[in-house]
Amino acid sequence: MTDQTTNVADLRRAVAEFVDARDWRQFHNPKNLAMSIAIEAAELMEHFQWLDLPVSGRIGESPRDIGDIREELADVLCYALSLANVLEIDVSTALHEKLVKNNAKYPAERFRGRFK
Amino acid sequence: MTDQTTNVADLRRAVAEFVDARDWRQFHNPKNLAMSIAIEAAELMEHFQWLDLPVSGRIGESPRDIGDIREELADVLCYALSLANVLEIDVSTALHEKLVKNNAKYPAERFRGRFK
Amino acid sequence: MTDQTTNVADLRRAVAEFVDARDWRQFHNPKNLAMSIAIEAAELMEHFQWLDLPVSGRIGESPRDIGDIREELADVLCYALSLANVLEIDVSTALHEKLVKNNAKYPAERFRGRFK
Amino acid sequence: MTDQTTNVADLRRAVAEFVDARDWRQFHNPKNLAMSIAIEAAELMEHFQWLDLPVSGRIGESPRDIGDIREELADVLCYALSLANVLEIDVSTALHEKLVKNNAKYPAERFRGRFK
């Protein structure tokens, strides 16, 4: 089960099965899930709280940090996919459409190396 | 390009191409990306700020709200996948391993309908 | 030292002394402090993650929860005041001006019992 | 009304009057307020999203940025004080106690110039 061989629907189904096996759909309303994404995002952010940017770029060299960060990122994705499940949002379509929109908003030749 | 037919590596590649076409890798260090996930998560959360939980559960009935929420969710995923790209984290494996760990931590029969 | 007898400058000074005694001003740049406020805000939010709104309203009845929440709120304020120190923002003036602005934006008679 | 001449109870009262004039106490339950603090904290953070740390340290030189940041910081404080109002938390005491606790956890001589 790697990113090369897993389709997005498989990931969503794995999350849905975990939730349903515990009858947790009742807690997974959109408001709670949006909060949960933000909470896990903050736990992810905590690993970089006091680092300057170049040091944060080398965090991949620390197996222990990477292990923790992988887990926090998984938590973010888990709640994000559960929200997609609850609201029946196709995330591949949503992501694709957002990239198309951002392509128009930030033309590559004009925003090369600058973000505003 | 739907969740049924898109594998996770395809989504990651689409994000990487958007970033690279603008030479934005220089801004996409892990610290900035973790902040960006949290910022987008908060924008997502804003749609539910004052709603009570049952009302938040019916937000899917409002096409306009759903349109905005889809975009915010896409933004969260976009930065999450960019972080995975930068740190070379396989998100399918990470998510799978986290579910295995949570399965052990929250046995289904014991946590049915309760979260603690 | 209670809210009745403490002025805001006293609180700010207590935070500044804590930071300076450790020579932590070097870490307390505005970007790190903004992240830190968000991290502590998420820890505060975690106490309400799965609660419905009426239950969250009765959390004051649980001395243990209130003890934890007091600490998280103190952390939010600590970093918020440190940011005010670093950027030399007078928070009483800033808060007062924001209330004046919001008074104009949300006239009391029109927004009574509704937020939009 | 400056930090030198304003006591914390005055600030809290100004926030309570704003809320009560609109009959908004019904929305200001602890869960919604904790979300609101996090949302405003993210808006504050957005001003530093792509800046490196030294640049973020010079943001005080830009009157326009500072104006926006003052407002976001005021929003954070506004919700933080409203939460204190709802939960009847004395923030001066809470902050003072947290600093005492952190003084024990991070002895100044041992943590000078380092945060772990």
Report on this structure.
4 copies of one chain form a homotetramer. Chain A has helices spanning 8-21, 30-46, 53-57, 63-87, 91-105. By secondary structure, chain A is mainly alpha-helical. In chain A, helix 1 (8-21) packs across helix 4. The radius of gyration of chain A is 17 Å and the shape is globular. Chain A starts with 7 loop residues before the first helix and ends in an 11-residue tail after the last helix. The mean pLDDT of chain A is 96. Chains in contact: A-B, A-C, A-D, B-C, B-D, C-D.
Short note summarizing the structure:
The first copy, chain A, is mainly alpha-helical and 116 residues long.
What distance lies between the first and last C-alpha atoms of chain A, to the nearest angstrom?
39 Å
Poorly predicted ranges of chain A: none
Radius of gyration of chain A: 17 Å
Number of strands of chain A: 0
Averaged pLDDT of chain A: 96
The largest sheet of chain A, given as strand count, sense and whether it forms a barrel, is: none
Oligomeric state as shown:
homotetramer
Counting DSSP H or I runs of 4 or more residues, the number of helices of chain A is: 5
- Rough outline of chain A: globular
Order of helices and strands of chain A: HHHHH
Task: Look at the helices and sheets of chain A and give the structural class.
Answer: mainly alpha
Largest interface: A-B, 78 and 78 residues
- Helix residue percentage of chain A: 55-70%
Range of strand content of chain A: under 5%
